[in-house]
Design brief:
Length: about 180
């Protein structure tokens, strides 16, 4: 609920005249819930403002990636810290759980979903992938190309997540180089 909805609910509640003790109890519970909603709404706004400031302080360009906003950028930065601890994008993908695992047998070459890695970062990559598939652009083009190549929708989404992992890694590496160059 937004602040406007809370105000509307409060106005409606003022017009309620409880008849029974049960009605009175229900009204009191509704008031308490409304108070909680307003408090939570304030906390969410404060939290978003703090995240915006923290992400801005890092001078990252992660938020230029379609589907990756302030909240997701804060998650990535918080979980990754110094990206230089990953020597390659493959190590990074393994850490995020977006690198597929080999499930080949004989001549049958297959890969399966990696259920390991940092699940919070994997969730971030999933959210970015879903946004890019929905909103069009290069991510959607890549996804549709993978489907036309015979991949299932979930397989195509996994491939997009792996590609996005590489993009996030490269952005973070580029940001780090830029900051080091500016500091020198």
């Amino acid at each position: 609920l937004t602040h406007r909805h809370c105000d509307k609910a409060a106005t409606l509640m003022k017009g309620i005249r409880p008849v029974t003790a049960t009605d009175n109890c229900r009204r009191d519970i509704a008031r308490d819930l409304l108070t909680d909603l307003r408090r939570l709404d304030r906390q969410v706004k404060d939290n978003e403002a703090e995240m915006r400031e923290a992400v801005a302080a890092t001078r990252t360009t992660l938020t230029t990636l379609p589907g990756l906003g302030t909240v997701l950028a804060a998650k990535v930065i918080g979980h990754i810290g110094d990206v230089s601890r990953f020597p390659t994008e493959h190590h990074f993908a393994s850490y995020t759980g977006s690198a597929p695992l080999d499930a080949s047998s004989g001549n049958n070459v297959r890969h399966r979903l990696n259920t390991g890695g940092n699940r919070a970062l994997n969730s971030v990559l999933h959210t970015i992938a879903i946004c890019q598939i929905r909103d069009g652009g290069r991510g959607q083009d890549y996804y549709l190309r993978k489907i036309s190549e015979g991949k299932t929708p979930s397989g195509a989404r996994r491939a997009l997540k792996r590609r996005l992992s590489n993009v996030v890694y490269r952005i973070m590496k580029r940001d780090r180089r830029t900051h080091l160059a500016q500091a020198a």
